[in-house]
Amino acid sequence: MGAIPAQRETVSLASDVPAHAFDPPAYEGGPQDAARMRATLHGGPLAPGAARGLLRVAFQQWAGLGLPGADRLTDRLAHDAMVVVSELVTNAVVHAGTDVELVCCLQPESGAVVVEVCDHHPSRAPRDGESEAAYEAAEYGRGLRLVSAMSEAWGVSYRRGAKTVWARVPAEGSADADALERTGFPGAELLAPEPHRSERDRDWLGRGALSFLAEASDLLAGQLDEDLVAALTGQLIVPRLADWCAVWLEDEALGGRGGWGDAPGAPGPRLARVWHSSEERIEELRRYLEQEPPRPSDGLSAGPVAYPWPGEGFGACGSDGAGEAPDIPGAQADSRALAGRDVSGAAAASGAGGTQAGEEGHEVEGAALAYRLVAGGRPLGTLVIGRVGVPRFPDEITGLVEDLSRRVALAIGAARQYARQATISAVLQRGLLPGAVAEIPGVRSALVYEPCDKGGPSGDFYDLFPAGDGRWCFAVGDVQGKGPEAAVVIGLARPWLRLLAREGYRVADVLDRLNQLLLDDATEAADAAARALVGPVGPGDGPQTRFLSLLYGELVPFDGGVRCTLASAGHPLPLLLGSDGDVRTAAQPQTLLGVVEDETYTSETFELWPGDSLLCVTDGVTERRCGSRQFDDGDGLATALAGCAGLSAELIAERIKRLVHDFGGRPPEDDLALLVLQAD
Fold first, then answer.
1. Which of 180, 188, 181 is nearest to 396 (CA)?
2. Who's near 136: CB < 8 A, 6+ residues apart?
3. What's the Cα-to-Cα distance from 487 to each of 409, 454, 477, rounded to whole Å?
4. Least confident interval from 91-105, 145-159, 312-326, 331-345
5. Distance between CA atoms of 289 and 295, rounded to whole angstroms?
6. Cβ 367 vs Cβ 388: under 8 Å
7. Is the pLDDT of residue 511 over 90?
8. Rounded distance, CA 185 to CA 328, Å?
């Protein structure tokens, strides 16, 4: 199951797997003798797609093994089962947010597929939206209504600490499947209320539409840029559902009202994306739309409202010629059906033509609808779609786009949240590092700093600053972990280093005092800051000490060279490259800072002569992995440095960085920092 690395998966495909996890079964005919797939999925946005992928693989393996009932696994049954799995897993992820346990099995005698999804929020009932109004459905969509329509039986069972929703999807040719077939496609009434449609229309609206929504959810969920979400939305809608579409994005700080023409000069919504089935019409459409942005109502309904056709004569620019529309089911609805229909409210609008619907002597140029993009009660923007040559959108298309618009809004909200977190991390990171490194007489310096940007601010830091009396000090450090706690420790350690150095303390004395300060103050401060930023600490969770590894030194230039005094506290040892190409360690290993009370540190002193280079790195360099090997195995770093003899400080830093990157097949998974100091 390597194709879905983001999930934790264990799958059983044989028919003799252990007894069923959810006892007793909540349905008749338990699958004790059936082929079975079992998986545990992380309760995140990738879970529905992972569940479908697992089920697809399971069906293939069951058929390949010839397990009982596998001969009845048709494409239609597989498709229905995957839709049911997708809906149940999505329901669990959205409304429980816990890890999800998935069990799917094949009943040998009937060939039916039984699906069970268990979450760990038993107090939260599954949502089916039965009582929702036509265009006022909550963000969970149709949910279990589709499951109910596509299954011969389904239900919910509760046990202590868990809730399980199960469904049984019948095989083709069974009595239950025949009964469902005689009543029409299951769920068709949810997406296509018109009673007379072709089999092709029913197949698209009942099956293709569901797959479309599922795949669209997967595609949008992984995007971390709101403009990319808007671009993908245009490509998803055009030409499948509409001739053109546009996405406006608005500033949440305006509350969904300011900037929409209420105050002259106020910032308005941003037209993030315009898409048309005829690319040569995109700029023309953009000019029309920019003249009059949508003006949302006071409510936050995501349902469609009529939108004025953008500009006189624009209806002649369809994708295939004047008045022609793409092949969408129900597109040629009778225009008389719209006469007298109220299109002012969200629950009634199915489109607004370029001329008023039902007005005699005018030809309708097209229909346009606007959908408010709302997530978490916050207005994020507006989606507008248009169709050429029709007086109104068919109801099934408006409902489908409404479902899609909810997913688009959630994706935009997630992208904005990610952007906010990235901005906070960047601001913190800039505050934790020096604005510029000092220039030292007789010494050339080169720095490489690459934070991995996972989980907040980096735990690596560096500094190079004047300490007075002809001394310059440098530091390369690494705080255990990263994020808010690491940021607090770095924010305390760097000023302390500078203060102690400028007060005249020598290298060993600085480490002694910094160690005691960390033990006395920094751990408590870091834990308090983490609680304030991340959330309350759970019962039984005490303060977590943040250890600090540090390489700290002092440089004193003299005539013909530089005197260097340094010490390493739990840090990768510095390497000294002589002008003759010889490499040796330049310090002795000592204990991490913030670990042992009253620890006494010692320092080493040596001279850097012209051409000598000192290399200081963090463990992102030494512990760079390639399979089971690390970069520094067998003195790999010393060997790499020996090959840099005769190079400048800048070239040494660049070569080591390149060797570290090339060592593994994937990008580095840890922060990386290295400092090269070379005597002129």
1. 188
2. 301, 303, 346, 347
3. 32, 13, 12
4. 331-345
5. 12
6. no
7. yes
8. 19
